Amino acid sequence: MSRSISLAVIPGDGIGPEVVAQGLKVLSAALPQDVKLETEEYDLGARRWHATGETLPDEELERLKGHDAILLGAIGDPSVPSGVLERGMLLKLRFAFDHFVNLRPSKLFPNTASPLAGDPDIDFVVVREGTEGPYVGNGGSIRTGTPHEIANEVSVNTAHGVERVVRDAYARAQARPRKKLTLVHKNNVLVHAGHLWKNIFDRVGQEFPEVTTDYLHVDAATIFMVTDPARFDVIVTDNLFGDILTDLAAAVSGGIGLAASGNINPTRAFPSMFEPVHGSAPDIAGQGKADPTATVLSVALLLRHLGHEPEAARIEEAVSADLAERGTSTRTTDEIGDALAVRVAG
Amino acid sequence: MSRSISLAVIPGDGIGPEVVAQGLKVLSAALPQDVKLETEEYDLGARRWHATGETLPDEELERLKGHDAILLGAIGDPSVPSGVLERGMLLKLRFAFDHFVNLRPSKLFPNTASPLAGDPDIDFVVVREGTEGPYVGNGGSIRTGTPHEIANEVSVNTAHGVERVVRDAYARAQARPRKKLTLVHKNNVLVHAGHLWKNIFDRVGQEFPEVTTDYLHVDAATIFMVTDPARFDVIVTDNLFGDILTDLAAAVSGGIGLAASGNINPTRAFPSMFEPVHGSAPDIAGQGKADPTATVLSVALLLRHLGHEPEAARIEEAVSADLAERGTSTRTTDEIGDALAVRVAG
Ligand SMILES: CC(C)[C@H](C(=O)O)[C@@H](O)C(=O)O
Ligand SMILES: CC(C)[C@H](C(=O)O)[C@@H](O)C(=O)O
After folding, report:
1. Which amino acids does the record list as binding Mg(2+) (chains A, B) (predicted)?
2. What mean pLDDT, rounded, does chain A reach?
């Protein structure tokens, strides 16, 4: 537990700045008086790219390394070609800082409607690998733009990369009451990557005899996500499957407005980054309509990562109580942030 | 429209033989008296592999070519290592017969419960590419089984392969009342493959000015699948995304027990293959518990492909009426098949 926090803040595009402002408000309210919070803002995203053509200059990447953690709002705008900011900034950060654990909890909070009938019991966490798979950028095309174009994408999986995230997932499962870990892959088709994952999953499992294990193909996992989400406790999966499953998980557990995430380097060699799962939603930006709750819950993950467990838990309880007691009137971004800050300080 | 049908039948494993028997029963009932149906059974699947070590010998592949179409029940058993039958038989057939259109309709039938609240209006079809993407088998591993293992999987995408399936999807969208086509990919991360898909999607779209188009990242598509499935009319997507989305689509539209599919070669250079989306379900095999409806609906797709549109429509109407009027008592596989055959003949 640190007595001071140096936080890099990347508000980003669209609703990013609005939700980050609320996240910081709640963070300040949650921190004990004697913990010093220093923030430094980084101007990255679509605006910056339009102005300078830069996505994430090396000099800024270097400076970011000096912080304890990073809070990111959202990156992206339709005016920027698809992939430029994603590959040039978001993924660049995840790779440069070796964020191999992409942590995404899903919980159906009280008084929150699921699109699933009967509002099932949902409380699981996805541990998504963050530095390998088809995200590595080892693709290319030849004869581009011609009728003979071939475009390849390579999914790279290493024993090193798989083992560390699988072990992290086992440890998280071990620490939860149900102690259940499900591996999701597609090892009947992607046999080489799939068998690597499955073999390591089985081997590391021997170190965690109390954890019950399960394997599902990714297609079957999406079925259970809508027919029986209560069966999941901890899920570990590759970068792409994790991307898909966590959006689906967010949708069934009350919507992307509540989904938090952490891009974590458990070794602490580099700062970890926390961000809501949702995007920049330019259509509602600047109108006070964005729900900052996912960002606030990401702040809780950030605090937990930095060793401030009581404060993290207090934020999560505040969100839970706030959702349970909210009325039917629509609240602005600011009002939700204020309500949460009051509860947390309270 | 053919006056005779030579059909290859692959009952396969688990519940495969049971559901195929009902599919054939309904097929016979649906065909006009003057259409001659000849069937030849192929013993392929887990049993065969255990007995002989063979998955799909070349000689049988050759013989299969001589038929007008193939009806497949289900392949697979936990006793066979993952990937052996999938790669050695199912995918081998799809690749050898160039089944580039993997057609998977989703419809919420009357009196059928969706796991989604409010039983939304669901009536769309996924056109999944069937011969490329990460399914090509261009993967491998080095230092296998050591702490330094690297396992790669290559997704191969060609202009030729993408254009033909995209054009097929546009034609299907054009023929439907809503005339809407959604491309699903992940072109912000898989930029090379993604841009190939998007460029061809946009270019071919110029030939279909009446079709409204839309693009979604695969993660966002799973969200809409549970929050607003009515927005979909025709979806075109790559092999892996299509695999994932169609299982999810089956789940939200009443379950995998109702999901039909066709592995189609529209050029008719090779026989097309029709199969339920579900697997061999060894846990309920031989107990008369399997729902043969997905197989019966696959028979409808088969008939439509062979030019027997009225018979195909009659089967689909029979299924719809059967589901609408079924009581609350559980019916056996046989009883459902009988009920459908009577309606179709009727
Ligand atoms: C924006 C995109 C690169 C990103 C991803 O695919 O990882 C997003 O979808 C996410 O899940 O954080
Ligand atoms: C069994 C497997 C190879 C297959 C696939 O992934 O295509 C199945 O999931 C399907 O969707 O037909």
Report:
1. 219, 243, 247
2. 97
